[in-house]
Amino acid sequence: MDSQPWHEQASAASHRMNIQWTRPALKDAARLYEFIASDNPVIAAGMLEGIRAGTARLSQFPQMGERLEKYDPRHVRRIFIGPYEVRYEVKNDAVTILRLWHARERR
Questions:
Q1: Is residue 7 part of a domain?
Q2: Which terminal Cβ of the chain has fewer Cβ within 10 Å, N or C?
């Protein structure tokens, strides 16, 4: 049984972390958008919105991604949003989006 009183558990569960994007991650998003928008800007905008919505969930559930132990002691994780891999770091009260790729891209 958890030792925290129920009201503290509820408070901890409702705490939202800040989401920050690094410059490389923003450049990744712009690059992916430009690639898709050259064929279909509507689909490209939908792709970005899906990634934004998926990463926004990290503010409430920062531990949901797979931990990448090769980056220890940093707390780097990854999630997949459709065919896109998002790598992020959990530190203090923030989730920092580090990089973003399509699964077929070479890295």
A1: no
A2: N
List, for residues 6-17, the tens digit of each pLDDT value: 344 344 445 789
Q: Which two tokens stand for residue 59?
A: 């503010």
Q: What is the pLDDT of residue 104?
A: 87
Q: Tell which residue, 82, 28, 32, 21, has the closest CA to residue 56.
A: 21
Tokens encoding 3: 């030792």
Residue showing tokens 């712009």: 30
For the CA atoms of the chain, what is the radius of gyration? 16
The residue ranges of DSSP E strands in 9-93, in sequence order, are: 18-21, 66-67, 76-81, 84-91
Note whether residue 3 is domain-resident: no
